[in-house]
Amino acid sequence: MKTFFLIFSFLFLLISLSVNSQPKEDILFSSDSLLGVVIISDLKSVTCDVKEEREYHDASLLYKTENGTEQHIPIKIKTRGNFRRNKANCDFPPLKIKFPNNENEGTIFENNKSLKLVTHCKTYNKNFEQTLLQEYLVYKLYNIISEKSFKVRLLKIKYLDALGIKEPVEKFGFVIENEEAMAERLGGNAINLQQYKQSDIEQKSMITFSIFQYLIGNTDWSVPALHNVKLLYKQGQPIYAIPYDFDWAGIVNCAYAEPDALLGISSVRERIYRGFQYERQDYQASIDLFKAKKDQIYALYTNFEYLSHKQKKLSIDYLDSFYKILDNENLIKAYLIKNARNLD
């Protein structure tokens, strides 16, 4: 009965999906350059509004165009997230930016109705800016591996308190492509279909997804629960899983990240493969892909100017330990296949 209901719900969802028009060019995510912006709002009211039912607050976003003209955009912002929204964990929570009434037309933010903003978490702890940059790089890493991924844009943000009570703060942050925009770019639709099993996802892409999560040391995801996973449906094709939210990944190594006790590992830096088990030959195309992209992945970290020398070394060492496995058939079988989860 449960299976019948799932299939019926899925069919109903597909019938209700509209046909996508030609996606519009998104200027914001077409560049990797650092974008400087200013956000002005009543910062105390915003950052303290972390209850379950939260409000949008009036704010302004300013940035300079390439010719030096200052652009001013009225926006709405509110806190978002779960763990990082808790004041015990982060004094500056992640934000959602909404652009009302097409106020962003003709600006770099045009064609974005809303955006998720990843913030620095701890205002007076510089280590958290480094972990934010590490999480940004994980998104860029998956961009190298797959076009079916979220785009991101790095920002240097000056936060100004409209009431003049809080001191100005300037920190790194990054915005994440809206899920509907991502799906439209890829010619599909983002769907919410819980209890859709990992084994039902397009096999090759799911193996690539799982190896990527193993590479970055991330176990904080679930396809059936749609936990840090979005599903993409393209007409006439299988469902694809798109990962996001990587602050608990080992390569990011955030101070608050701890593995689930049920996994039997003591640190998020310790990798454990959470993909399902397939025949050895089914892994080969994905393994070849990661090997082919190796130089690009290493260059992503070595050429990134905002990461500290210490963080670069930690990242390169972490990548080295991953590629050591891919270069050894016995290690592939031991870590990626024998440790894989059984298909259900």
What does this protein look like?
The chain is an alpha+beta fold and about 350 residues long. It folds into two domains: about 30-180, no CATH class; about 185-335, no CATH class. Helices cover about 30% and strands about 20% of the residues. The protein contains nine helices and ten strands. The chain has helices at about 1-15, 45-50, 125-145, 180-185, 205-215, 280-290, 295-300, 310-325, 330-335, and strands at about 35-40, 55-65, 70-80, 95-100, 115-120, 150-160, 170-175, 190, 230-235, 240-245. The protein has a seven-stranded mixed barrel with strand order 1-2-3-4-5-7-6.
Topology, element by element:
Layout: H1 2-16, E1 35-41, H2 43-48, E2 57-64, E3 70-79, E4 95-98, E5 114-118, H3 127-145, E6 152-161, E7 169-176, H4 179-185, E8 189-191, H5 203-216, E9 229-233, E10 239-243, H6 280-292, H7 294-302, H8 309-326, H9 329-337
Parallel strand pairs: 1-6
Antiparallel strand pairs: 1-2, 2-3, 3-4, 4-5, 5-7, 6-7, 8-9, 9-10
Helix pairs in contact: 3-7, 5-6, 7-8
